[in-house]
Sequence to fold (267 residues):
Amino acid sequence: CETCSEEEAKYRCPRCMKYSCSLLCVKKHKLSLSCNGVRDKTAFVSINEFTDLNLLSDYRFLEDVGRTADAAARHPTVHGPTTKKHLYCLRNKARKCDIDLRTLPVGFTKRRENSTTFNSVEKKFYWHLKLLFPHCNAEYTLKRVPDDKTLADILKPYIDPVESDPVVCQRLKIYAVSPQSDVQILMKIENRKQNSVRYNELDASRSLLDNLKGKVIIEYPTFFVVLKTLKNDMVVLGQDASEPAENSDSESSSLSSMEEGEIRDSS
Fold:
């Protein structure tokens, strides 16, 4: 058992392939690794390991995708004038703030999750925000984050040694004990080809709105909080000598690849 290291393993997690000996250890491993125990139907399988079972799984996956897309297209809220008007206003307000906000059709996971709103009285956005801490395999979702709040203040409840929640801080200990100068906040650039993933580095001292200006956002922002000394394959735009500090790839190819990933996720 990879959890208690005492008993003989009886079970293997379909998601992360960890061995467990009992229901208790299964629950512990899910909690510690944030694992949902559901097999990843889109996980890469090399051609040498590809079997008839993998082919059957892919076939059933595509059938599920077709059913999900058809059900989403038939959903009554897709054609609802109130929903369309709300999304139009939201995108229009974002455009005035120099933010290219794009929304997905009903049925997509990110469309269902998104709780971003615009307060007309205060004239500011309250964003749905996702924080990813890859070095600790942790993910947190924030709702109603005001756009005038700085990124440093947003991260305080998570990695600040004094102000953060003790439980969360313990889980993100590697971030909490690192100097603030080593913490880097990245945001994936959406309008790039799938095989050319790049990230924009954000300024923690500036507001959320300032950091989102000039960016393409699919539904809501997702921030990757990394440590400069540990990050490996996350290439920051402008820090790669082989390419210029601006994005020249077409937006359509990235959007289509993103939608493909969202379709898989929603199934």
The CA atoms of residues 12 and 97 lie 49 Å apart. The two ends are 31 Å apart (CA to CA).
